[in-house]
Amino acid sequence: MGDYFRRVAALVREHPEAKSYLTNVSNCQTHRLTGVELSAITNSTAIVAGFHAPERSVSTTWIADRFVAAVAAENRIEARMETRVVEVRPEHAGDTEGRWRVVATGGDDEAFDVVINVLWQGRPAIDATAGLKPAGVWSNRYCLSLFARTVEPVDIPCVVIATGPFGDIKNYNDRDFYMSWYQDGLRVDSAALSPPDPPPLDELERSRLCNSILDHLQAIVPGVARTRSRIEHMSLEGGWVFAAGGGLLSDPRATLHRRSDFGITQLGSYFSVDTGKYAAAPWLAHRLADRLSS
User: Fold this and answer.
1) How far apart are CA 220 and CA 45, in angstroms?
2) Average pLDDT in the 109-127 region?
3) How sure is the predictor about 258, in pLDDT bands with cuts at 50, 70 and 90?
4) What does the pLDDT look like over 191-225, one tens digit per residue?
């Protein structure tokens, strides 16, 4: 793992825009934690090594709120909320270079010059209606995570636990935290084109799940107890994760770990975009804009 981190750090340093990242990473380095440094974070015998990396975590909720506000403020975007697309097909059968009909719930049925499918969950199902046959192996996973706010600042580091079960802690500003424990949060794992809805949780089940996530994290990172004792508000929120590949996250041989099979697929004037990891979305959006304007 140390060799892998060193190679990634070298790629980051060599990037022409290394100085323009969330922080200047033109001197990007990773280092393996000493025994003393590691013991300050964890006393778990399951953790055999730790590494410090200049990764920056961003609050996706903060970004999402501002994205929604930007869409609402743009008068050239017509937002159709509470609507689910069920089919996309050529306006004239077999003519993929022409216009496409988009059929949605509520009776919407309209033709468009260009259609871009950037759905996260359910994208392959719509691709299939357009004539793009899904290929390979994929997984649809619905995961729940804990979002917490403390009454006062708590200084604990961001941590990714890669022991097999997997968990992570994101400290955004010493008061807002994201915490996950994969085995607790995973509610649906399906290779179906249209995965089933996640099972509902009542308040008691949600409370038990929150405590289980905190218990598992605290067992490995004792500092979680400081955050836990100062929580003034917490919520359990979830979302879909689509990935090319399959298998168990705890299996190092699983193709799910590759996450390199993503990008833009085109069928005439229909585009399907698999963004892969969250951070790749802006780069793909730029590439798609270039392709549409060329």
Assistant:
1) 9
2) 94
3) confident
4) 998 899 999 999 999 999 999 999 999 999 999 99
Mind giving me the DSSP string for the chain? -HHHHHHHHHHHHHSTTGGGSSS--TT---EEPPHHHHHTT---TT----EE-------HHHHHHHHHHHHHH-TT-----S--EEEEEESSTT-TTS-EEEEEGGG-EEEES-EEE--SSSHHHHHHHHT----S-EEEEEEEEEEEEESS------EEE-SSS-EEEEESSSSEEEEEEHHHHEEEEE-SSSPPPPPP--HHHHHHHHHHHHHHHHHH-TTHHHHHHTEEEEEEEEEEEEEE--S-TT-TT-GGGT----EEEEETTEEEEE--SGGGHHHHHHHHHHHHH-
List the Cα angle 15/256/5 in 5-degree steps.
35
Please report the domains of the chain, with CATH numbers, ordered by start residue.
Answer: 1-56 (no CATH), 65-137+257-293 (3.50.50.60)
Q: Residue 25 and residue 135: Cα distance in Å, rounded?
A: 37
Give the whole-angstrom CA distance, residue 56 versus residue 183: 24
| Of the candidates 153, 143, 205, 202, the residue with the CA atom closest to the CA atom of residue 176 | 153
The token pair that represents 284 in the structure block: 């793909």
- Is the pLDDT confidence value at 189 over 80? yes
Q: Which token pair is 91? A: 């306006």
pLDDT at 164 over 90: no
Q: Which of 32-36, 86-90, 241-245, 255-259 is predicted least confidently?
A: 255-259
Output the pLDDT for position 259: 76
- Are 88 and 118 spatial neighbours (Cβ–Cβ below 8 Å)? no
